[in-house]
Fold these 3 entries.
Entry 1:
Amino acid sequence: MGIKEKLYEKIQAHRPRITRLYKEFADKVIDDVTVYKIIAGMRGIKALITDISYLDPYEGIRFRGYTIPEVMEKLPKPEGAEMPYVEGHFYLLLTGDLPTEKDVEEVFTEWKKREQLPQYVIDTLKAMPRDTHPMTMFAAGILAMQRDSKFAKWYASGQFNKMDAWDYMYEDVMDLLPKLPLLGAYIYRMKYKGDTHIPSDPNLDFGGNFAHMMGIDKPYDDVARMYFILHSDHESGNVSAHTTHLVASALSDIYYSYAAGMCGLAGPLHGLANQEVLRWIQGVMDKMGGKIPTKEEMEKFIWDTLNSGQVVPGFGHAVLRKTDPRYMAQREFALKHLPDDPIFKYVDLMFQVVPPILQQLGKVKNPWPNVDAHSGCIQWHYGVREYDFYTVLFGIGRALGVTANIVWDRGLGYQIERPKSITTDMLEELAGAK
Ligand code: CMX
């Protein structure tokens, strides 16, 4: 059975569960909304559904029930590669089933047919000033492609019906995803490699082809596969996933929705943190004249950052309460492939020094490193030293999860999002603070 047929079968089987919950259990209370949760950014309120990934505060992310080590072990890999096919990971996220080699081949072939970047996207990018942030270029490139949305055309034709909406969303997603490595690599080489470009290789997979178009040798293909898989999904409440879901809930197509999600990812408290980590480490390196600091020297740098009112980038998390398994996967890779890299030595030292300091502050709920504390270090090692590009890499990976979610949103007919706001007066009244 092909991926689309399997998806439809799964959507049909799932629909009665949502309908039953909606009809028979609509009034059942499942969570409390406290004043804290409202003021702290709707923190932790159970108000979104997704079956694609679940984030346990102590265990970390599971994709369709599988931990990161399980995903890395169970998914098919290209010959000679350490990391699995991104194509297979998307199959898992979308259908919930582990793909066979044949399933991976199907996604590979389908994406190859649809990967070409339209000339007008290239023209749009070229028209932007070269010092524009790569995330702005990335979001603009995605948004420019909206003119080709099959979902939007279908809606405009007056034939929209809720039951078939997943089909047009799926087609848009399958059109969009394979273009993203091309878009990312194009932006990179336009901005930083003198506008020289390397054509896509029809024989290479999503990750391998990205490495090829970036112009970076092995094992960067495995770095790309690992990076895209690790960043793919982190349940639905984070800023990029939630924004994509929110915008799509207005029946906006995937181009509008995902571009909006990318604008959220570009914030320093979210996806920009990987760039901030490298900037921070480079700053310390400059002050140290390239030397590795002692533990005591590193502690002082951390305190200087905190005392100047800044956060330590790459540490802390809104949900996680232990070291991020996405950090650990990258650490394992670094220990194997770049144990002597000076930036890795900094990252390693921060792993030892930062958590006890953040614990001393007393207010930080999670003193442990998140995914962003590690990712820049590996990119730097393989020659991607323009750290304002790092969030684009995060964004390409994030597309896999958010787009799978949006196909399911349409499949299950989720409604437009519309929480209610109240005034401060009303909140004071409700809280008994008047
Ligand atoms: N350094 C210094 N202070 C920190 C901190 C850090 N790394 N992490 C949290 N804190 C502070 C908060 O700023 C907050 O202080 P105030 O009460 O003075 O405002 C306090 O500790 C409590 O915050 P929290 O409940 O522990 O954390 P939040 O859920 O509010 O925020 C996050 C989570 C990620 C935004 C925060 O930990 C942070 O700013 N980290 C650094 C940036 C970063 O690494 N972001 C990447 C997140 C990963 C991702 O995007 O997936």
Note: Residues 273-381 form a domain with the Cytochrome p450-Terp; domain 2 fold (CATH 1.10.230.10).
Entry 2:
Amino acid sequence: MAESKTKAELLPEDVDTDDCLTSYTYIYSPDLLKDQVAFITGGGSGIGLRIAEIFMRHGCDTVIASRNLDKLNEAAKKLSAVSGRRCLPLCIDVRQPDSIMAAVDEILKEFGRVDILVNNAAGNFLCPATALSFNAFKTVLDIDTLGTFNTSKVVYEKWFKDHGGSIVNISATLGYRGQALQVHAGSAKAANDAMTKHLAVEWGPSGVRVNAVAPGPISGTEGYRRLGKH
Ligand code: HXC
Ligand code: NAP
């Protein structure tokens, strides 16, 4: 008779660092994403890195892209080692459309396709509205909101328009009730939630699914270290 597992044994391991999991319990088929290609912004750390790891453990190749290439190179090595899949690290700033265009050209040259875009890159810190400079508010909107639009538009025009695909925007619940010290990030994510619906309506007919996921506080991440105690 199969041994029944406790709830704790069924839960994924709680990792406090950007190391890969030491064990992984499959919920979905191991081949769920076999030979697909996912482009994950901010995939070199935190939630983005874990998304890359789980996708790769289900047969996906990934591209992880952000500003710090050293961090991405290190992450890519770890991810490929645990999954046996390919992970391509690329340097981009989601505020600079030219850098995204060059990255997508490189992805299509290297893999010949892109199936999934995860808009995960973001910037945040705790700050009351009265202390927030004009540039501080703008910076977070630039990364979170314009960055999500820029990346979605480039991937759509270069590939999804003719082949379909899936976009997942990583959101947050900060704006739902107006959390203190978070007017910048809450406003940015609320705009992204609206953008998700607009693009789903406009791009659905081309076979593009656009969805958002709003996690609660996730331990072991930079977001949690910056905000978790509040
Ligand atoms: C107030 C700040 C600040 C702070 C920066 N600024 N940090 N203001 N409090 N802690 C201001 C600066 O003074 C400047 O304004 C403006 O913001 C831009 O700062 P830069 O350092 O020039 O920007 P940049 O180098 O582009 O860096 C972006 C950043 C940085 C967001 C400021 O922290 C970053 O790179 N973050 C990426 C990692 C990250 O934030 N991860 C957490 C994501 S968690 P002035 O006026 O002086 O020019 C998340 C949600 C979590 O998003 C939800 C949890 C529940
Ligand atoms: P994180 O590790 O700091 O992830 C953010 C990533 O974005 C970093 O890898 C960073 O890499 C990249 N990035 C920042 N600015 C960029 C830019 N201009 N261009 C390209 N890449 C950029 O933090 P996290 O906590 O895992 O957050 C990941 C996502 O989850 C974010 O969208 C966040 O809002 C969301 N979220 C987090 C939590 C949580 O509890 N942690 C809760 C709800 C939602 P570089 O520095 O190399 O650029």
Note: The pocket of hexanoyl-coenzyme A (ligand 1) is lined by residues 122-125, 127, 133, 135-136, 139-140, 172, 185, 217, 222-223, 226-227 (CB under 6 Å).
Entry 3:
Amino acid sequence: MCGIIGISSNKSVSANIINSLKKLEYRGYDSAGIATLSDGEIIEVKSEGRVDNLENNFDLKNLKGNIGIGHVRWATHGIPNQINAHPHSSHNVSVVHNGIIENSTILKKHLINNGHKFKSQTDTEVIVHLITENLKTLELEYAITKTLKQLHGSFALGIVFKDIPDLIVGARRGSPLAVGYGPNENYLGSDSYALKAMTNKITYLEDGEFCFVKKDQVLFFNEAGKKVNKKILKLSSDEASYDKGDFKHFMAKEIEEQPTTIKTGIKEYIDSVNKDVNIFNFPWNIDEIKSITLIGCGTAYHSCLMAKYWFEELTNLDVSVDIASEFRYRKNRFKKDTLYIFVSQSGETADTYAALNLCNKNKMKTCSVVNVIESSISRESNFVLPIHCGPEIGVASTKAFLGQILVLYILSLKIGFLRNEIDRVEYKQKIKDLKTLPGLIEKTLQHDNDIQAISSTFNDAKGSMFLGRGFSYPIALEGALKLKELSYVHAEGYPAGEMKHGPLALIEEGMPVVVLAPRDNYYKKTISNMQEVIARGAKVLLITSKSKDEVVSENIWETIEVENTNEDLFPFLLTIPLQKLAYYSALKKGYDIDKPRNLAKSVTVE
Ligand code: AGP
């Protein structure tokens, strides 16, 4: 979740490094720094906070050097401050790092005993001194391979050397790293997004590989230090340069883009003429799949949980769902007839990627649902279902969530039909209903003013609950997560029927509680649960669907009615007011909406 950029050029690099770091801030923004080589010296500038701080604190326009590395940090070891900011440098080596060195403590002790002096609390600084130590006795390639062998844990590295004025070394294990090719210059970056402004030609390093990047040459090596040839990929153009347009925040733009997200997904996967699902080159015969396991983190996990309900309903398969950081360490019983589906917007989340690697190692059937099609998870799954929603910059996921659950819903329809669990008439009807979804979302997005008005109640409360049953329960979890990560107030998503088994004790006078109760099979029971919390003083925001029947209950604080539709599709509509509730709560608090504190867009470390 840190961002790395390196440029080796025939001209000054500081401006391009700064621009790339600004694009990389979605990966982390606790601190930022640059190191360039100029006149045989390493020039290192770094500061706490955003890249803007770096620009305010240093005259970067006059920062000399035709080769340099840059870094934006999401702190893992050592508090976010100037000392712990990357790059870290010795007298002759400077390093930027994304990942976690798990044996840094023992290596540090050994290096201190050998006379090395440390300035920071970071694990990264160990890498600097280890390379410096190894270079005393070994040629460069051997010093690099030896150093990488000594490191335990994950890393993406960018390294420059005082005595080698045009070389950047990159190395990858567990954290993504890419090389880009430009005119009279070449690049190293954490991901393609950082490099897109400069090139559309990219090569990804695989785990264990390292590379030598010069302005006119790039060499790749495997773990043993043997040269390897690698393909140059042309980047997809669907991530053209990106700005907020007239929106105040990327998140606001991405919320409003959701009708387009759904339209794109429908265009991609639905044959409107024949009212059929187009999922081409599915690598397995449907009879080979007897169960499904869905795996993800955060919002992507909520997509998995949402999909569980649809898969169970439509395919009659056994479905399990797992949080990736749990799955990767549990004693799993891998089954050949299980389809493992990995959901990840970035396609680089460390825990989800590790869970995929575990399944690949056990030769399981793996499918990924991703937004970044050049990502590690996408490239290393047997089968990929892209959501095509364009770059999602806001750290809080919105359109990617809807894109994920759309693709998963479409997949459940297809598998259900192929397994004869839903008949042709029902299948065609559901596809027909799906096509009305963009318009329904457009209408739901209009609930703007009423949500703005009620958002401050959530800000003033010491906590809130989000309740739902069945299809609405994963949406309750997602709504609570949005409010937590944007306005930093406690919120808890809970199965409505479960409140009476303990959490009802939390309810007190005036506590805001969101109740998701569309007119589906769970409606009546959820309304009863709603009355239980109202009876104990809760201020209930009821989000239901339009109906000619009145809601049978009094003392509801506020009601929002989404459009009526096929009940499979209510989750899409219920999500919208919850995204806006979190957005307006954070807006009222004046918090950084696109980059909430302590978070990052792509969590590429454990
Ligand atoms: C969602 O709003 C959060 N930003 C976070 O939970 C995110 O969904 C999670 O880190 C997974 O990211 P991924 O989809 O890129 O794997």
Note: The mean pLDDT is 93.
